Amino acid sequence: MPEDQGSSAPATAPAGKPYHAKRPHRKSRTGCRNCKARKVKCDEGRPVCHPCTVRGDKCVYLVAPPPARVSRSRTTSPASSSDSRPASTPAPASAFTPASSPDFVLVGRHADTITQQPQFIPSGHTQADMRLLWFYTTATYASFSTGQLKERSVDVVLRVNVVQQAFANPFLMNCILGLTAMHINHLGIPNLDISRSLEIQYRTKALESYRKAVEAADPATYPALLANSLMVCGLSTHIFRGEDARPFSFLDWMTLWKGIGAIINVTNFPQMFRTGIAALLFRPAVDMDASAHALPNYLLFMVASIKTDDPDHPLVPKYYKALKFLGSLYLELRNGFSHRLFLRIVTFLTYLPKPIIQAARERRPRALVILAHYLVFITFKARSCWWMDGIAGFEIPNIARLLGPAWAGLLRVPLAALRETDNRGVARLLLDDPGWDEPTDMFVEPVSPAGERELAIRALMEDDMAPEVQAYRARKLEVELC
C-alpha cells in the first residue's frame, strides 16, 4: 500500500537495504541556464558554476546575483571564486572577458539594464573604468581583430593577454580606456554615461602616460608598449574627425604606425612569446614580383617617367618598393574581401620605406598619389574597424586640392571611389574591371549591421527601434519568475 503523503519517512525499508533520508536542500532560483535545462542543482558560482566547469559547457545566467550573495562553489578555482575576491586585488582578465556568454544579457523591461558588467571595482579604478573595460572586452577589441587565420588568431590575445598587461602597466590601461570611450561615443550609446569631456580626459591621460613610458624604455614594459603602440594608432584617429580634424593629419598618423616597427626592433622576442603578445606582430609575407604585376599601369608609369634631372629621381627605387607593397593589396583583392586582405590593409603603413614617408611630409606629389590610392582600400566596409571611418573621405580631397589639376588624372580613381556606396563598386574601380565580382569559392561573409555584436550594441541605444533590434531585445529581455 502506498505510504501516506504526509509521512516524513517510509514505514519500512526494503529488506537488506538501510534507509537513508533524502538530504534537504534549498531550491536554486537563480541558477544558470544549463543547470535549469538539465534539471540539476546549480551552485551559482560566478562567472562559471561548478557543473558547467566539470562538463566544459558555456555558463549563462539569466539574472544578476543578489547584492550580498557569496558563491557556494565547491571549487577554489579563480573562475568560481571571483565574487569573494577583495576589492583591492587586481582582477584577472577573465573577469572582464565574457567569452562564455552572449555579448550582452539584458534583464527586466529596459534595454539599459546590463548584467554582464563587472561586479567589483579593483583598487585605483572607478565605475566608469570598469564599464569601459567591460565594453572593450565585449566589442572594442574586435576592431583590431582581422579574423581567424592559421598564422594569426588574436581575439584571445586582445581580450585576455592585453588586459593582463594593462593591469600591470597603467599606460596601456589608459589607452584601452581612452580608445573604448571614443568607441562608445562614436556609436552614440548614452546609456553607459561616457561623455565627450570624459573621453578627452581619458585620451589625454593615455597619450601622456604612453609618452613617458616610451621615454623610460623599461624592458619589462616592452610587451605592453607593443600592444599600446598598436592601439594608440586607433586612439589618435580623433584628429580626422570633428573639431580636431586638420588637413594632412594622415602624415603624422603614418609616423605612429612606423613607431610599431621601432618598438619591435628593441623587443625581446622570448619575452613576447611568454606574455602571449607575439601574435600581434604577425604581418603576411609579400610576393614582390606578383604584387608588381597586380599594380595599375598608370602608377608604374608615374615612377618610370621620372627623368634624371627630376628632384624625385634619387627616390625611384623607394617609390618602386612602396608601389610593390601597395600592389599586394591589389593582388589580394582579386581573391575577394578576405581576412587576409584586411590584415594587409591595416599593416600596409608599417611596410612603407622611411624616405617615402618623409617625401609625403614634404608634400611631394608622387608620394601623396601613392597614399591616396592606399586610402581607397580603407573605405571598404567589410569589417567593423570603426576608428578608420572617415579618414579617406577627409584626406583624399585634401590631397587633390593641394596637387591641383596637373595631377587630377592620377587621382581619378581615389576621388571616384568616394562616390561609391558598396565594396563591389570600389573594387571594380581599383581593379579597372566593371564586370568583376567576388569569387564565390573565396567568399567571406562581411560583418553586417545585423550581426550579433552589432545588434547587441544597438540594443543599448534606447532610440533604435528597428525590427531586428526589437527582435533581439525580445530574445534577451528575460525575467526570472520561478
From TrEMBL:
Residues 19-36 have a biased composition (Basic residues). SMART domains: GAL4 (SM00066). One of its GO terms (molecular function) is DNA-binding transcription factor activity, RNA polymerase II-specific. Residues 1-36, 69-99 are annotated as: Disordered. InterPro entries: Zn2-C6_fun-type_DNA-bd_sf (IPR036864), Zn2-C6_fungal_TF (IPR052400), Zn2Cys6_DnaBD (IPR001138). Residues 1-10 have a biased composition (Polar residues). CDD domains: GAL4. Residues 31-61 form the Zn(2)-C6 fungal-type domain. SUPFAM superfamilies: Zn2/Cys6 DNA-binding domain (SSF57701). Transmembrane segments: none annotated. Keywords: Nucleus. Pfam families: Zn_clus. This is Zn(2)-C6 fungal-type domain-containing protein.
